[in-house]
Amino acid sequence: MEHSNHTRVTEFIMQGLFDHPHHQELFFGLFLCLYTAVVMGNFPIIVAIVIHPPLHIPMYFFIANLALVDILCTSSVVPKILENLLQEKKTISFGGCITQLFVLTSSLVTELLMLTVMSYDRYVAICHPLHYVKLMRKEICIRLAVSAWAVGTINSFVHILLVLHLDFCGPNLIQHFFCEFPAILALSCSSTYVNEIMMFMADILLVMGNFLLTIVSYSFIVFTILKIQSSKGKQRAFSTCSSHLLVVTLYYSTTIYTYMQPTSSNLQDNDKMVAIMYTLVTPTLNPVIYNLRNKEVKPALTVRFPH
Questions:
Q1: CATH number where 46 lies
Q2: What residues form DSSP beta bridges with 13?
Q3: Where are the beta strands (DSSP E) in 40-184?
Q4: Per-residue pLDDT tens over the stretch 187-246
Q5: Which positions fall inside the G-protein coupled receptors family 1 profile domain (predicted)?
Q6: What is the pLDDT of residues 13-63, one digit of tens each?
Q7: Region for residue 241 given its phi and psi (left: phi exceeds 0; alpha: psi -120 to 50; beta: otherwise)
Q8: Which segment, 153-162, 227-236, 254-263, is predicted with the most confidence on average?
Q9: Among 6, 59, 130, 217, who pairs with 123 as Cys (CB 3.0-4.6 Å)?
């Protein structure tokens, strides 16, 4: 059988984020400021953790990985948004769309897994403090981080391969402001049954599975903290995981809302607002949360990046 070229569509047209052409310059400035905040907020944290010896402990190693994931996630979406805000015709090439899908999806899954690893780190630190050095030694932390990146990359690669086997021969208007699997599958003129099954399985195994693991970890953490007799001891124990708990809440509240619902629901305007949260707002807030809550990070940033 002769091999056919499945992809006839060479570019996609973005619906865009806002239906107010006369406000494009304002939105461009806003998104540019937020993107700059993401990069300038996360990059100094990575540098400070790498070159400041007191921060060479598991918790900050994972925070550095999380900061890198946030930069990749935002960089996969925002530059193209900024470009389209300055153009009347908002387009993206098929190859560009596939690249955006790959980087964005792998970043989101890696962040999901990294947050789970960080919850395990907090669980060991609070529930098994005497065994923390052994259970969270350097080689184990590296393996956990590499595994998170590997699973995120492999998951995204599998979904991309399935998309590349689809036919795109008709409509090319993406009802979103960036390439996302539900919006792309809606444009295919061939069956997307396998794609949707694989996406559903990934949602269950990765999103809900990691969510349950995080809940279990924090359940043990709460029970352990409640057993502490002194109020000062309880406050000290809770302060070690409060930043991570806040970041987890921000991430899951947007991700679960977006992905654990029917495909057609993902194309509504309110879902675009939620997408802004997990691709731009949350990566902006994460370094702020860790800077404000971690006394060790603030001095390192002050020394390495003085005002």
A1: 1.20.1070.10
A2: 91, 173
A3: 91-93, 173-174
A4: 998 899 999 999 999 988 998 899 899 999 999 998 998 888 888 877 877 777 878 888
A5: 41-290
A6: 887 676 666 677 788 888 899 999 999 999 988 998 888 888 889 989 999
A7: alpha
A8: 153-162
A9: 217
* 248 falls within a domain: yes
Give the integer Cα–Cα distance in Å for 306 and 300.
10
The alpha carbons of the chain give a radius of gyration, in whole angstroms, of 21
Whether the Cβ atoms of residue 303 and residue 268 lie closer than 8 Å to each other = no
Structural domain span for residue 154: 11-304
Whether 264 shows a pLDDT value over 50: the answer reads no
| Token code pair at residue 220 | 């043990």
196 token code pair:
């949707």
- 2: in domain: no
Q: Is the dihedral of CA 119, 286, 209, 270 positive or negative?
A: positive
Strand, helix or coil for residue 212: helix
Distance, CA of 307 to CA of 300 (rounded, Å): 13
Question: How big is the CA angle at 39 (ends 33 and 42), to the nearest 5 degrees?
Answer: 130
Please tell me the pTM assigned to this model. Answer: 0.87
Give me the pLDDT at residue 284, please: 87
**Cα 118 to Cα 248: distance, rounded to the nearest angstrom:** 10
Query: Is residue 6, in this structure, part of any structural domain at all?
Result: no
User: What gap in Å lies between CA 164 and CA 50, rounded to an integer?
Assistant: 38
Query: Is the pLDDT reported for residue 254 higher than 50?
Result: yes
